[in-house]
Design brief:
By secondary structure, this protein is an alpha+beta fold. 33% of the residues lie in helices and 17% in strands. It has a single domain, classed as Alpha-Beta Plaits (2-Layer Sandwich), CATH 3.30.70.100. The chain contains 4 helices and 3 strands; from the N terminus they run αβαββαα.
C-alpha cells in the first residue's frame, strides 16, 4: 500500500510538473445487453485521450478515465452513440441503432424473448 501511494504521488508530481491536466475518472450510464455490446462500446473508446474504458453489463455503466485536455465529455458521448448505444445524455440515431444485431437492441426489444418490451415493463 505504501509503495502504491508513493507511486501515485510521484505520478501526480510528474504530471503536474508538465502542466498537464488531470485524468478524469467517471461513470456514464450506457445501454446495452451482451458481450458484443461490451466489445463495441469499449472499442469505440480506443481513441486519443482515453486511458480506460470498461463497460459493466449488469450495472449498465461505463467506467472511464480520460484526459480532459485531449477529449471532452461530449466527444465521449458522441463516440458511444455512433456505435448505436444510448447514454444518459445522448441517444443514438435510429438508423445506427437499427443496424445493431438483434441481441444488442436495447430500447424496445427483449433479446431473450420473442416479445417486445412495453413502456410499462421498464
Amino acid at each position: 500500500m505504501k509503495t502504491l501511494l508513493i507511486t501515485l504521488f510521484t505520478l501526480f508530481i510528474f504530471s503536474a510538473s508538465f502542466g498537464q491536466k488531470q485524468v478524469v475518472e467517471d461513470s456514464i450510464p450506457v445501454s446495452g445487453n451482451c458481450e458484443m455490446c461490451k466489445a463495441r462500446i469499449e472499442s469505440a473508446l480506443e481513441i486519443k485521450g482515453i486511458k480506460l474504458a470498461e463497460w459493466n453489463m449488469d450495472s449498465q455503466k461505463l467506467f472511464i478515465a480520460y484526459r480532459e485536455d485531449k477529449i471532452s465529455e461530449k466527444e465521449i458521448h458522441d463516440a458511444i452513440v455512433a456505435t448505436g448505444h444510448d447514454t444518459d445524455k445522448k441517444k443514438a440515431e435510429d438508423e445506427v441503432y437499427a443496424k445493431l444485431p438483434y441481441c444488442c437492441l436495447h430500447r424496445d426489444v427483449d433479446p431473450h424473448s420473442d416479445k417486445k418490451k412495453h413502456k410499462s415493463d421498464h
